[in-house]
Specification:
Layout (H helix, E strand, L loop, with lengths): L1 H23 L12 H14 L5 H19 L2 H12 L4 E4 L1 H11 L2 H4 L8 H8 L3 H6 L2 E7 L3 E7 L7
Antiparallel strand pairs: 1-3, 2-3
Helix pairs in contact: 1-2, 2-3, 4-5, 5-7
Length: 165
């Protein structure tokens, strides 16, 4: 009953919000550009319409995306092992050959995870399986670089505190 009585005011509030967002939409520049940039522009315009200092809506959206990505990465045995490896080293940095990395990752993960179809069976396939994870891991504060010199090297570094709870 109360909802039915308040429905016209609720509807007007929604329409006022949409009008305010549309008014500010052309002039806003997102401070936290993310996936679905049009949505980010809408929430930036909403912040401006509400007169909210800073970018709390955009920041909350970024945090929600990072949290979801971190949860997804934890479901991938190789990604989870990489994050655990770099979090476990003293300087938050690890460097070595693909074979050394595979050995280090195998020490960090269970036999069950290693027997999954997602786990690289050898050092050659390790690099190929890491490549698609690089960008997602970077969003979590884990940087991976591949160097080709006299011998191939992979360096994994925990940068900042991103994605690290």
């Amino acid at each position: 009953e109360e909802f039915e009585r308040d429905l016209p005011r609720i509807f007007r509030g929604v329409l006022d919000l949409i009008a305010g967002v549309l008014l500010h939409l052309p002039s806003v520049e997102p401070t936290c550009p993310e996936r679905m940039i049009d949505f980010v522009r809408w929430i930036a315009a909403m912040e401006k319409f509400h007169g909210i200092p800073g970018d709390p809506y955009q920041t909350a959206y970024t945090e929600a995306l990072n949290c979801g990505m971190r949860d997804s990465l934890q479901e991938i045995p190789l990604a989870a092992a990489v994050m655990e490896l770099v979090d476990g080293v003293t300087l938050r940095r690890w460097s070595g050959t693909p074979s050394e990395l595979l050995d280090a990752l195998c020490r960090k993960t269970s036999r069950r995870a290693q027997s999954s179809a997602d786990w690289p069976p050898n050092a050659i396939s390790l690099s190929r399986r890491l490549m698609p994870l690089v960008q997602s891991l970077q969003r979590q504060g884990v940087e991976i670089t591949f160097d080709r010199g006299r011998e191939r090297r992979i360096t994994i570094t925990r940068v900042g505190g991103a994605g690290h709870d």
